[in-house]
Design goal:
It contains three helices and 31 strands.
Length: 424
């Protein structure tokens, strides 16, 4: 009997610790099931009360071992609408959602949501995918914040109510602008004195690494999310007694700032200002072949690149990377000047293997090389299992699918093989 009593007591204590986060009222006025029903109903009502949805700073990997991402979620009549920085800013994915009863309320997405489930999707060589959750224990709530814990990977995250006047696309485009403006490497300076360490910000891996100089502070590495003003981390970093969780971008001084701490951007050796890239260039590809590329500003950090291939004029979008001072050219849909296809996929490829990649952002960094007085095409490392050295142009049908010819082969319009350099 004593053993049974102790077990019941322990279970009750565990339940109270979980439940008290949702209800500070008298625990003995209702049964556990009734209290859980009430908590679930209240959490659903809170989720759906946000007319412009919620911002979730989403962290992946066990013990925050992978990246951070911004997700936007809206809940209405049992459905979830999701956008995120991992998808185009105008894309919203719809599915069902629910708050289920376990030891406490759990937010879950029981039907497939392309964006919400993407980071949890298993791959042939990686059964854990990118180690993202799609079920979240609701730990605590306030009127404007919902504290979550990933059910599988255990990371704590916070959803905050989105301002009613902030359009989702505008938010995602704005944080992308921050991403494009930040440097990759920084010096750590406190109170405007000597450098006490270095920082490496990796936008592709979504991680930031702090390294102390001569043991001035303990080395640390964390995931981060971009914000409208800079970056934020799930836990604070200690830089010689100065603790910081978020940094604000100071564009005038090329620095990330938190109180007395400044992360001062380090300009790469081959850095070139945005205006440098405007003008007429000659691209060398396939060893000796050339084509002309006219680069013109297209707003923000974007450029339009116009080139003629096979007697037809094509236009691609290039982006300026402020942190590296280089251009990027990645896979994208472009217009078909012949009007034969609805669009043309300008896709990154490895022509040595005869393979294309459909990985987001795969392509080239185009970096100025002072030694050769040329801009060099280098694989940006986003091609998955292949190395990028070329682009293929493949027609797309009205449904947005890659078109095929009468023999069933992909409708290849042209190939730019082995892009190597370009020169003014």
């Amino acid at each position: 009997m004593k053993k049974i009593f102790i077990n019941i007591l322990l279970a009750t204590v565990a339940f109270v610790l979980q439940s008290c986060l949702h209800d500070n009222q008298d625990f003995f006025g209702a049964s556990p099931a009734e209290r859980l029903d009430k908590a679930v109903a209240e959490d659903k009502a809170l989720l759906e009360s946000a007319t412009n949805g919620w911002l979730l700073q989403f962290y992946t990997g066990k013990e925050y071992s992978k990246a951070g991402y911004n997700f936007l979620l809206k809940f209405k009549d049992g459905k979830a609408y999701v956008s995120a920085e991992i998808a185009p800013s105008d894309v919203v994915s719809e599915s069902k959602y629910d708050v289920t009863q376990e030891r406490g309320p759990v937010l879950t997405f029981p039907t497939h949501n392309v964006i919400m489930h993407h980071l949890a999707q298993a791959y042939q060589r990686n059964v854990d995918g990118l180690q993202g959750d799609y079920e979240f224990v609701i730990m605590k709530t306030t009127q404007d914040s919902i504290y979550l814990r990933g059910k599988k990977w255990g990371n704590d995250m916070i959803m905050t109510r989105m301002p009613s006047d902030m359009q989702w696309k505008t938010y995602l485009d704005s944080i992308n602008t921050i991403k494009e403006n930040l440097f990759s490497n920084y010096r750590v300076v406190i109170n405007n004195t000597d450098t006490i360490g270095t920082v490496e910000l990796d936008p592709d891996k979504g991680r930031v690494a702090f390294t102390g100089k001569n043991g001035s502070f303990a080395d640390d590495e964390k995931p981060f999310c971009y914000t409208l003003s800079g970056i934020v981390m799930p836990t604070s970093v200690d830089l010689k007694g100065q603790k910081a969780t978020a940094f604000t971008w100071d564009a005038a001084n090329n620095a990330l700032v938190s109180g007395n701490v400044k992360l001062v951007g380090v300009i790469p050796e081959n850095y070139q200002p945005k205006t440098f890239w405007e003008g007429d260039w000659t691209i060398t590809y396939n060893s000796t072949r050339t084509l002309s590329l006219k680069v013109t500003p297209a707003g923000g950090n974007k450029f339009n690149g116009e080139f003629v291939l096979g007697g037809k004029t094509y236009n691609v979008v290039l982006k300026y990377n402020t942190g590296k001072g280089c251009l990027t050219l990645v896979s994208q849909d472009i217009d078909d000047p012949s009007k034969t296809y609805s669009k043309i996929w300008f896709g990154a490829a490895d022509m040595k293997q005869g393979k294309v990649t459909f990985e987001d952002g795969a392509g080239f960094d185009i970096t100025w090389d002072k030694a050769t007085n040329k801009a060099l095409f280098t694989d940006n490392g986003k091609g998955g299992t292949i190395s990028i050295n070329s682009f293929v142009l493949i027609g797309k049908d009205a449904k947005g699918e890659l078109a095929r010819d009468s023999d069933g082969y992909l409708a290849t319009v042209a190939i730019l093989r082995y892009l190597s350099s370009m020169k003014k």
